[in-house]
């Protein structure tokens, strides 16, 4: 075969290879599923933030108002009741501030023409939200317990053990409720499926991409 014929054969093979459709994986169903999950998570996190911001803010303002007005709706207003109100207002105020400073927010990536690239962005967003949910759950749980213990210890030191214990018993369930009503679906989804997301293959046009991700 002459050199010219060989070059012609190579050129024809290259043209044929370019004409073959690329093996594009079907990323649309998975992308649609994760997008629907994030849209729902966005609503849930907004409701949780708003609800607990209002609850903590109202509790702090109400207890502070009673202390300043020196009024006990259930009996005599004394130093023990006043200090209990101030401690409760301070704890609720810290809870209110934490919801303002450290809100739980969900990022929903914009749609893309390349559904596989969109899928990668959606998985990243779910992973980020899962880490936030996990971190905030433990921070709310452990931080709330520590805060209530500190308030109880202060009232014990200033008045009596029973005063501190009553304050703790009343306030502790509020912190637990705040932690356990926190949306955690992304955390559960991430734990269940992250192993499948460690290797991602995508193809676009004539280019194919293989991405390897580490474990979290």
Describe this structure in words.
The chain has 216 residues and is mainly alpha-helical. The chain has one domain. Helices cover 72% and strands 6% of the residues. The chain has six helices and two strands. The protein has helices at 3-19, 28-69, 79-101, 115-158, 161-180, 185-193, and strands at residues 199-204, 207-212. Strands 1-2 form a two-stranded antiparallel sheet. Strand 1 and strand 2 form a beta hairpin. Helix 3 packs antiparallel against helix 4, helix 4 runs antiparallel to helix 5 and helix 4 crosses helix 6 (185-193). It starts with a helix and ends with a strand.
Q: What would you report as the Rg, rounded to the nearest angstrom?
A: 29 Å
Low-confidence stretches: 2-23, 201-216
Domain module tally: 1
Could you describe the largest sheet, including whether it forms a barrel? Answer: 2 strands, antiparallel
Indicate the multimeric state. Answer: single chain
- The helix count comes to 6
The global form is elongated
Q: Can you list the strand order of the major beta sheet?
A: 1-2
Query: What is the beta-strand fraction?
Result: 5-15%
Distance between the termini: 57 Å
Overall pLDDT level? 83
Number of strands: 2
Helix content: over 70%
Task: Give a nutshell description of this structure.
This protein has helices spanning 3-19, 28-69, 79-101, 115-158, 161-180, 185-193, and strands at 199-204, 207-212.
């Amino acid at each position: 075969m002459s050199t010219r014929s060989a070059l012609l054969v190579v050129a024809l093979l290259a043209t044929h290879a370019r004409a073959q459709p690329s093996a594009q994986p079907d990323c649309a169903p998975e992308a649609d599923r994760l997008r629907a999950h994030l849209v729902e998570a966005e609503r849930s996190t907004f409701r949780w933030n708003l609800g607990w911001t209002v609850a903590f803010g109202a509790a702090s303002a109400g207890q502070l108002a009673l202390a300043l007005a020196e009024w006990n709706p259930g009996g005599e207003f004394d130093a023990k009741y006043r200090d209990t109100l101030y401690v409760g207002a301070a704890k609720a105020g810290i809870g209110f501030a934490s919801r303002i400073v450290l809100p739980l927010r969900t990022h929903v990536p914009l749609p893309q023409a390349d559904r596989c690239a969109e899928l990668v962005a959606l998985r990243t967003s779910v992973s980020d939200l899962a880490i936030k949910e996990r971190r905030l759950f433990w921070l709310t749980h452990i931080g709330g317990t520590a805060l209530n213990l500190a308030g109880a210890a202060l009232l014990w030191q200033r008045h009596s053990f029973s005063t501190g214990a009553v304050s703790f018993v009343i306030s502790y369930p509020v912190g637990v409720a705040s932690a356990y009503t926190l949306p955690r679906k992304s955390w559960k989804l991430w734990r269940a499926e992250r192993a499948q997301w460690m290797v991602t293959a995508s193809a676009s046009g004539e280019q194919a991409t293989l991405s390897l991700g580490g474990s979290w």
